[in-house]
Amino acid sequence: MRRVAINLTQSGWIILAAVAVLTVVGLASVYVTDTHYARGHDGPLNAGKQGVFVLASVFLMIVVLRLGYHRIAQSSYVLCGFAVAALVPLLVAKVLHVDFGGLTAPRNGAYRWIRLPGFQMQPSEFFKIAYVLALAWYLRYRQNYQRFSGLLVPFALSAIPFALILLEPDLGTVLLLVPVLFSMLFLAGARKRHLAIIALLGVIAAPLAWGQLKPYQRLRVTAVLLQSESLRRAVVESPQDYTFLATKRQALEWAASSGYQLVHSKNAVGSGGVFGQGYGDGVYVTHSLLPDRHNDFIFALICHQWGLLGAVVVLGCYLVIVVAGLHIASATTEPFGRLLAVGVVTLLAAQTIINVGMALGLLPITGMTLPFVSYGGSSFLSGMMALALLISVSQHRPFLLADKPFERTADPSIRVPLGQDDPPSHATIDRRD
Amino acid sequence: MFDLRLKILLGGFSLALLVIAVRLTELQVVKADYYRNAAERSLLLKPKRLPFVRGRILDRTGEVLVSDQPCWDLMIDFDAIAFGIAKDPQSGEDLLTLWKRSGRAPQGVSHGSLVASLENELDDMWRDLDAFAQRHWYEAEQAAQDRCRTLYDRVRRIREAVARRRGFDAPVAEERVRHTIMPALDGDQQIAARESFLRYPWIRVERSSVRRFAHNTTSLAHVLGRMTRVSAKDIAHDPNNEDPFGRYRADETRGATGVEYSSETLLRGRRGRMTLDRDGNVVTSEMIEAENGSDVSLTINANLQRRLYRLLGATVDQVPESGGGAIVVMDVPSREVLALVSYPSYDPNRFDEWYATLRDDTVGLPLRFRAVSNRYSPGSIIKPFVCLTGLTSGVIDLNSRETCTGYLFEDHRDRWRCWQMHGSSRRKAHGDVDVVEALTGSCNIFMYRLGEHLGVDGMTSAFDMIGIGRSSGIGFREESYGINPTSSWLATNKGLRTTPGLARLYAIGQGELSMTPIQVASLMATYASGTYRDATLVGAAEQKPAWTLPGDRESWQAIRSGMYGVVNDPDGTAYKYAHFVNDRYALVGKTGSATAYPWPTAYNV
Predict the structure, then answer these.
(1) What ipTM is given for this predicted complex?
(2) Structural domain span for residue B200
């Protein structure tokens, strides 16, 4: 096996620089919460653990870059199969109420983590990447998704792992993968009309799904709506008109129960002001008022310490990654790489938007980390693997003579028989010769 | 097309970024001050209530009669009551959370079996509470579960009352707090309670205070009064409703009777509030000190009261058929009540213990505050005032004379007799008497004739001036106002018209006319001073209303001479009981005895 030399392109360097800034900001924030939060606790501190994960992920990144994304791409389906298989013990544990000697012990009622000695692994984090790889691999040469019936196939195939993850339950991850699916189909050339119809169907089905949600899941959504004091008052005064939304008790106790995290997150963000309270300063650093502040709500802590300026820097870093990633997608002519780049960028951007949105009270609170910043090994590792794949795409010179794929307006008269999977000669990516 | 679609995708991300930027600006620039303040406030813990000390009640010499003493209360979470009594599911969930947090709940079992074992735990708790009450407390009247049921019903009623006030139904504060089920534990009891109930995280023993009466206050039990729990009605009609620190809470007590009730506004303080931050410091800017209640000084002399109680008790006990009696001692110029004795009474510190016995004593009626709440026919003591009214209205004058033969109508000797002709005694009649002699001998015949002349209306309008039918001014809720049988009162309550016969009865202080002992004391003071004034019991009370009664000097002179004669003239009715010789003091008075009717004591049982 020939190793690919790591010879970073300009885009690669820019992306790595942005990630380095985010990592430093994240480590610094995790460190301050450590010194206050974990006072008196034995064992390794969170920041130390996170540092180990950073080193591990750098190593992993080098491995991925050395391999080259095309080699990994060939085992996309296998990887996806492994990732789905890793979900199975969790679901078995949930259904049978066993925890395999503490291996799959639930947290907050959710079976998402496999507890290994020293750290915990979240298989759904790795499933995200495997999913992007498999989807890109599936779509790279097809054109049948330009017809509506063909378009339904990727949706149907995605439904199986989505259902498994929903059972954990981890609604957030599924909600994150839906935009990934849409944007990859969109960029691959699916018809806007078809995607719009599917989105519309989803919107129509939403009220039905609303009834199927667990009460606590509904409360996540209503908690955001109940930010409005006038709505709370309306629910309290005429609860019979709002039974679909919230009970009166939920409205009365919003600030202390379902809205608690949101209230404190907004307090932390708002009290940061323009310049912030300063590193290691401020109420929300010195006191553990905000649950998950080192983790899902680290953006609130950053806004608290460094204010609007800090928020702009962090969001700017993500913007840099997104623009660079899209540039890589645009520059390459290799269809799989294009879709992979789009998928990775959408994954990171959607995760960032959802995480920031929930910290600011714009979106419901779901367990979602801020990529490269939040404490969490699985999240960091999977984020870095995604970036490594992205950079790896940029490493390969574009085939200057080749047509850029997905460029032509789709011709509905072209009928591609299902199952045709042979790559056209001009687009080969096998470099072993 | 790919690049175009990439731009559309980038546009989508940028739109989201724009929304985030707008939201960040709103939170961090526009409303930054609000959130900075909110962040500071989020450090504050839930404020703690600071209780006030209720004012003491002192006698006129400064002796402390009642005061708040520290003690411990055994309290139980309302959730435990609501779940234990009414199986309220929400309370069950809250209780379960508390149980799990305490680490005493069984681990690794399903929710259903956890609820079942919680129910068992509560059943054990009721048993333990009753066992504790048997061993360490006084033997409880009711089982703990029954007491909690009463408490639960009360909180439900409070919730309904509050819902009426607010206009919508919502949980009230009383559903979130602990309620006392065994108050006033002493040091040993509280340690035993802590040991017994360690396994129930919803039971706590907390510091509190209890109203303690001074030693030897039996004679003052009625005057001082008792405390009771605040009721739903109190909360609904609380005048301090707007004051969050002054208004009643369901876990508080208030004065129920006696001075505790009449001086409630003085004795009661105002709660305070203390806020700690998360570092354990007191936040001074949030601190609201509790205001203790004011002390109340009574005009009563406790030693005089005790002595009179002993004397009255000895006297009453000599008369087996007598249920009890009352003595009122009043200072004439100021109308300060120096003693207000009702016999029999009870030890106020042991009221709860003895309640059943006290309640069931239907002869002595020890719970009755005779001195202010029992109406008696005044009898002959009203006669001087009737004479004064006759003199001032010109119906009689100082020279008017009547002949008493012992009977008003010679041919109807069984009715309208003079007092000597009652029963089997046949003493001499008064003969020809004027006002002074009529009062000295307490002649009924003179009064019958005078009453006929004055008429019911003439007398009742005068009775109004000496406070019959109105409060004596001491402000007890158990006070009865007596009955002034005006023509309208007779028409309304008895369906009677005014007749000369009624006028004769009222002139000798009988019939429907009735007064309480304290009103009689006021009347006597009015005879002495010529002025009516409301009685005073609490020293801090404002100047009471007063008015001078009509009547020239000679008329007053005449009735006072008559009353001097009652005690000091050998023909006087009190001469052989109360006459004594003293250089400095002369005793003046008027006897009165009335036909007593059996008191109807019908209760809805």
Answers:
(1) 0.88
(2) 72-212
